[in-house]
Amino acid sequence: MSLFGRRDSSQKNRVSTPTTPTPTPITTEEAHHTSNKMSSFKFLSKSIHIPLLHKNAKTAPVKDSTLQNALANTQQRKNSNSLSNLRRQTIVHRTDNVCRRNTIWSDTVDVDLVANLSPRELNRQEVLFEIIKTEHEYVRDLRLIEEIFIQPIKQIEEKSRKPIVPTNLNKIFNSISYFLFIHEVISNCLNERQEAQSPLVRSISDILLAYVWVFRAYAPYLIHYEEALRELDESIRKKDKLGRAVKKQQKSTSCRNMPLSTYLLKPFQRLLKYPLLISNLLKCTDKEGFDYENTVALKTKLDDVLSDVEEQKRDHDNLERLRELEARIAGLGPYRLAVNNRQLLKESPACQNSLSLKKQPSLRKTLTVTSAPAPTSKRHSVRNLYTIECNDIVLLAERTGVTNEGHPTYKLVSRPPPTPLDDEPVLVHKADDSGVYYDD
After folding, report:
1. How far is CA 391 from the centre of its chain?
2. Measured between alpha carbons, how far is 34 from 42 in angstroms, rounded to an integer?
3. Which terminus of the chain has fewer CB atoms gathered within 10 Å of its CB, N or C?
4. Which residue has the higher pLDDT, 85 or 211?
5. What is 28-324's CATH number, 3.40.50.80, 3.90.79.10, 3.40.50.2000, 1.20.900.10?
6. Tens digit of each residue's pLDDT (9 = 90 or more) over 259-291
7. Bridge partners of residue 368, in order along the sequence
8. Which residue range or ranges hold the DH domain (predicted)?
9. Average pLDDT of 124-138?
C-alpha cells in the first residue's frame, strides 16, 4: 500500500473535530527565538523565504452569490426578531482564544445561517473549519514537544557538555523545531483569514498553495523516524540521562498521559491527513466558484510533493536493505552492492523453478555445480544455492548459515562484476559471464 494511499473510513461529508484543550499562545520572545533556529536547518537545498503573514491573509474576493444571499437572509431574520438576535449571536471559532469542546462549524454560527446554506456549501464550511482547527491542534502538539521535551533535554546537554541524544533522534528533534516554526506561520495565516471572512470563509487554498513546498522537508523525518524510535526505546530501557529525562517529562500534566513516542507520530499522521482534507474540500467546492482552480492546483501540487517524499523514503529503505544484505555476503571484495538507483528484487533458491528438479526432487541432494573450470575449483550443492536478483545484476551465492536475527548468510559463488567507473553505465550481470559452470 502506498504510504499516502490510506483512507480514513470514518471521514464523512460532514466533519466533526476532536476535543481541544485551551492552547498556550506563543509570546513575541518565543517567536523570535524560534525564528533564529532557521539558520540551522539543512532540509532544503536552497535558501527559502518565509513570509510571516500571507499577503492575502485579510482579503479575498466575494463572488459567490449563494453565500451573499445566505448572509442577507440571515441578517433580515435577525433584524425582525431582536430577542432571537440576543439569544443567538454568531460565534466564530477563535484558535487564539478559548476553544469550544467537540464543536463543528455549524455549532459555532447562527442557526438561521446554517438553514440558508445548501448541503454542499455546509459541508464545505465544515471542511474549512476542520482544516483550520486541526492545523492549530497540530501546532499545539509540536509546541508541546519543543517546550516539554526538546528544550529541557538540550539544557541537560549544555550542563553535561556532551551530547546525550542519539544521531537519528537528534535529527527528528531538529525537524520538529523546523515544523513548529513553519506551521505556526501557516496557522496564523489561516486564523486571520477566518476572522476576516467570518462567519463564512470563502477560501484558504491560496494560503496552503503558498506553503505546500514545506512538506518536502518531511522526507528526512520519515527516513530517520523508525531508527529514532529504537534509539529512544533503548535509552528508556537503559535509564541513561536521556531516558531518565524523557520519563520525567512524560509525567507532566501537559502531556495528557501520552508518551513522547506518541507525539513523535504526530507529523506522520498530519502528513497523511492533508491529502484527505484537500480532497474533501475539492469535492465540496463548486466548479463555478472562484476558489475551484486554486483548490485543484493545491491538490495537484500536494500530490506531487508527497509522491516525491514517498519516493525518497522508498529509495532510502531500499538502500538500507542492500547495505544489510551486503554485510551478509562473503566474497564481494571491493564490490559494493549498496549503491544508488539499484533495486533489490528478491533473494531466493536458485533452482526452485527447475522442471527437472520438480520431477526428481532427489536430485537436489546429489546435483552440484563448480564455481570455476579449474582443478582447484570447489563444488557446491544445488540445494544451498541462492540467487540475489537486483534490477541491474544477478549474483549466485551459497547459503552458509543464519545471523542472530534469523537472516541467511551467504558466500559468493559467482565472480562479482567489476566495479564500473563513475562515467560508465552499470550493466546487467548476464549468465554467460557469471563464472558459474554446471557439472554434467
Report:
1. 27
2. 16
3. C
4. 211
5. 1.20.900.10
6. 999 999 999 999 999 999 999 999 999 888 788
7. 381
8. 123-312
9. 94
Helix H, strand E, coil C: the string for 334-370 is CCCCCCCCCCEEEEEECCCCCHHHHHCCCHHHHCEEE
Question: How does strand 329-330 pair with strand 344-349?
Answer: unpaired
Strands (E), 197-318: none
Better-predicted residue by pLDDT, 336 or 67: 336
Provide the pLDDT for residue 135: 96
Is residue 174 scored above 90 in pLDDT?
yes
Q: What is the DSSP string of 219-281?
A: HHHHHHHHHHHHHHHHHHHHT-HHHHHHHHHHTSGGGTT--HHHHHTHHHHHHHHHHHHHHHH
Which three cell numbers mark 47?
535558501
Give CA 424 to chain center in angstroms.
35
Cell numbers at 343, concatenated = 533495486
Is a pLDDT exceeding 90 seen at residue 230?
yes
The residues spanned by each domain of the chain are: 28-324, 338-438
Nearest to 129 by CA among 152, 103, 161, 90: 103
